[in-house]
Design brief:
homodimer, about 325 residues, alpha/beta, Carbamate kinase, 4-stranded mixed sheet, globular
Chain lengths: ~325, ~325
């Protein structure tokens, strides 16, 4: 089978951990151990988030006053290099020496007319007090938005339209290469009216970009690995329950948090509906079990309605 | 023909320019215009330096005190992402839309027993006064060395032994892909006695890594583009002359500056001797002319001794 796996931010950094090289490496090693069985049995394509890494690069750039901080497309490209390197090296250390790897820098096209450009909503970087946020907004032309009583920079999160390196990725997958690509949702780019490709100050949702990648490659399975064991109906409420097997139509009748499970559910429904394949959502350590239906949530046209795990299997927190 | 081109630092940043995104983009656009004719006619593989970029990433990391600065392997990976992205995008904007591109993150193996680890000589990052340099050396375990009356951090520059992603690069070149790889000499890595691949605090010379790439791919031509029009015999002296066509054996009887033309000449001689192909050294804007023997210096077993340009062609500065 051909499987696209999207690693969530926590695969690289647990909540609250300082973003040291050592912490990232330890987490990537754990992720590599979880993914190795998939790489042994299937064609594996890996994509990943980059939120904390781009946040750090932006903080470092802001702390050094010698040069104007770089734009988000360039920071995204840097993060694809940094994270791709660690994943390739650590997974390479587990798999047999003859398994070929490629980390492909990936440019993703967005639509200049995407409504996201009219209403930036994706918070990035650190929190500021209001006055400081407003000063930075004036200075750099940022949009800012409230965030837990403080303020953060917000940027547009347009939908991914096209992955420019798709042919190359396809050729490598055909040759049996483990490909790491479309990191952080891909480097955001757009075509100008003159047909020139340019970088964009935006962040593409990595799960939506992962779904586009999985659809474009004709993957049978699209797996989103995160720090939730499954998709929870009524998450956080006393009657919350973990979903086991659901149809995209039924899943879309429920509502989920915009910043966390929402995009994953949207990406899963999109992939399942368009391809007829299976989208899985669950914990990193359950990667294999999710595909076998033994853990996490599977979304597919083959299922009807909403099927839940017995509450003994997953305990509401 | 299959051509490997190594872009020198000045292809991305002219001496003294601040390292802004805008400056890098303008320089990369110029480089892309120079390389486009080669990509139209030949199989083109591009590699590049990363000295100023890694220097900036290190300065930014040092300015932000929240996290310990990242190691040189990780900074190298970041710079491969940043620079590869700009080259791929700008060259892509010139070539026909159907030309496929791939920027491949590249790990290069070095030998733990390389004598360079006993005597670090490659200066990186900013200059410091002696006391500051000594404090930093104690704090971070750096080696430091004198640099024009001040001090800089010096790191080992071991020889490149093996390019791990070589098969992938070969497959892509066979498919007609313009490949950007081995940036900054590649990410420095080594195998531990247990066979685990790990990153190394070192910098691999990009011209030696480019020569290894060109040899490994069976390239007919290995072109090093820099800010010198040619290799100069007695550079800077009144009797300096620009070399036109030379044999590796004759070229190796001359001596060149260790930090600049020395590694290029060594890389050219190595490539020409081992492969029987042609190595070229000269200006970015002369890329096509160098291959045709109309500019720059060509090194090959086909030539005998040292052949010079008439002094009317290149004027000693």
């Amino acid at each position: 089978m051909r499987i696209v796996v999207a690693l969530g931010g926590n695969a690289l950094l647990k909540r609250g951990q300082p973003l040291t090289v050592q912490n990232q490496r330890e987490n990537v090693k754990t992720a590599a151990r979880a993914l190795a069985p998939l790489a042994r049995q299937h064609s594996l394509i890996i994509t990943h988030g980059n939120g904390p890494q781009v946040g750090l690069l932006a903080l470092e750039a802001a702390a050094y006053t010698g040069v104007e901080p770089y734009t988000l497309d360039v920071l995204g490209a840097e993060s694809e290099g940094m994270i791709g390197y660690m994943i390739e090296q650590e997974l390479g250390n587990i798999l047999p020496e003859n398994v070929p790897f490629a980390t492909i820098l990936t440019q993703v096209e967005v639509d200049p007319a995407d409504p996201a450009f009219q209403s930036p909503t994706k918070p990035i970087g650190p929190q500021y007090f209001r006055a400081e946020a407003e000063r930075l907004a004036r200075e750099h032309g940022w949009s800012i938005g409230p965030d837990n009583g403080l303020f953060r920079r917000v940027v547009p999160s347009p939908r991914p339209k096209r992955i420019f390196e798709l042919r190359v990725i396809e050729w490598l997958v055909e040759r049996g290469v483990v490909v790491i690509c479309t990191g952080g949702g891909g480097i955001p780019t757009m075509l100008t009216p003159d047909g020139v490709l340019v970088g964009v100050e935006a962040v593409i949702d990595k799960d939506l970009a992962g779904a586009l990648l999985a659809k474009s490659l004709g993957a049978e399975v699209f797996l989103m690995l995160t720090d939730a064991e499954a998709v929870w109906d009524h998450w956080g409420a006393p009657d919350s329950r973990a979903l086991r097997r659901v149809s995209p139509a039924a899943l879309e009748t429920l509502s989920f948090a915009a910043g966390s499970m929402g995009p994953k559910v949207a990406a899963a429904c999109d992939f399942a509906r368009v391809t007829g394949g299976r989208a899985g959502i669950g914990s990193l350590e359950d990667a294999v079990a999710i595909i076998d239906g033994l853990a996490g949530t599977l979304v597919s046209n083959e299922f009807e309605g909403l099927d839940y795990w017995p509450s003994l299997f997953y305990q509401p927190e």
